Amino acid sequence: MRIYTTRSRTTEEFVPLSPGEVRMYVCGVTVYDLCHIGHARSAIVFDVLQRYLRAKGYRVTFVKNFTDIDDKIINRAEAEGQAPHEISERYIAEFRADMAAIGVAVPDIEPKATEHIPEMIRLIERLVVDGFAYVVDGDVYFEVRRFPEYGRLSGKNLDDLLAGARVDVDERKRDPRDFALWKSSKPGEPAWPSPWGSGRPGWHIECSAMAMRYLGESFDLHGGGEDLVFPHHECEIAQSEAATGKAFVRTWVHNGFVNFASEKMSKSLGNVLTIKDIARKYPADALRLWFLNTHYRHPIEYSEERLAENARALERFQVLITDVLGIESRAFFDVPLPAKFGDSPPWVTALMALGNREPVRTYVAVAARRFEEAMDDDLSTPEARAALFGLARELDAYRRDGGDARAFASGVRALVALGRALGLFTELPEQAGPSPEVERLVAERGEARKRRDFKRSDELRAQIQGLGWTVEDTPAGPRLTRRTR
RNA sequence: GGCGGCGUACCCAAGUGGUUAAGGGAGCGGACUGCAAAUCCGUUAUGCGGCGGUUCGAAUCCGCCCGCCGCCUCCA
What we know:
The protein is an alpha/beta fold. It has 16 helices and 15 strands.
């Protein structure tokens, strides 16, 4: 598998430090407000990566933090007359609800900054002792000059950053580029005791401390939005590698932004759309399908029309799954993907127990191979997505041409298994929903059609529609789906 | 100013040196249907921002130009 890493700006073969095991860390959110779809994209990008790695057979340890102490949280707390921890806890709960709503799996470990202050202090102490950091009036700064590699990740020239026009000049710092590891606290602010007096951690140190705590001093992959490249990840590398003398992270992965009307979506521009806004109107898989259509490193422009299109496209899969659910149980779909699924006739054979000449076998094998090759190439989800649509069309055509029902079901099951490697189809279409009344109307409509009383039949269809269900007539009988149209 | 990205059909979006330029949405024609829906088949870019160049061959490499965006400050 090949992944683009920001540090070298090239796509490199991804080789975990420990064979078969991937340790990854992703910068989570600062919990002071609701999450917007930009956060959703980042969460989904790394959710896809994490799921795909597991599908490939890696044992994955996925850590994603909460930044629960920060100026913005303190300001918000003050504005609302609440304690900072009340604000952060509230938005952590909102975050969890949002992630569940968009089908993002819970990471293995979700550390909070405030619960790792001792680890941060120990790390800062190491840096002070080794001369990489200095203390001024209860603040501790990392001395950038001491770390020659500073700027490499983001491709910045140290001189260009010097006395940067937009960097606040603090007379007490030895160099304007130096960044805070520890900040002394003002009265009334949250504070922890430290060797340098009462204070709180700087932003960057928390990720280094928590990543090392759970993943070790060197680990495989670190991710986040592209805006974190500088200064956040640059600083993480500096402080971590200065402290340990070891390479901190092998692969740096950064996702592109969600833009709004061609502009970056951000709170300061006032053009944010929250995850709740989206989740209310569109299924999680529609959102995911939309993101999957654009490579993760490219910017993507939000438009409600795009979401509607993808909701529409999603129905192609849902119809297939719904029809299989008519003859198979939901557990039928719970099959794992083999580690090498694109080149695995045994899996295809076992999965379908079909003859060599069964075309569905070929459809699945070809699609799985195309899918895996795409994903192995720096997560080319647009191509992987296309493989899914291609397989869906072949299965539809196969069925239409009178193919074997079991083979068809097995093909759909394989489609679902592939999709699940991307986090799609984790929730199967609603099935056990129709009320007795709807069922009665459907039955009555069937009778009316038998009598060729189409006027009555159409009235009943309208009634059923009014109750939130769409009834379609297929050769196999009526298909009932919960749909908006 | 420094660094980086983008411009492909009606819309979105892959592809980054070599078969007939993925896929989705939308439109159109046809099949199927009591009518629909779903689905299938066909169809919509001799051309990939513009102009030059390299090459047997370029959307893909080089040069110039035009337009758009991001980072350099908290930020997914």
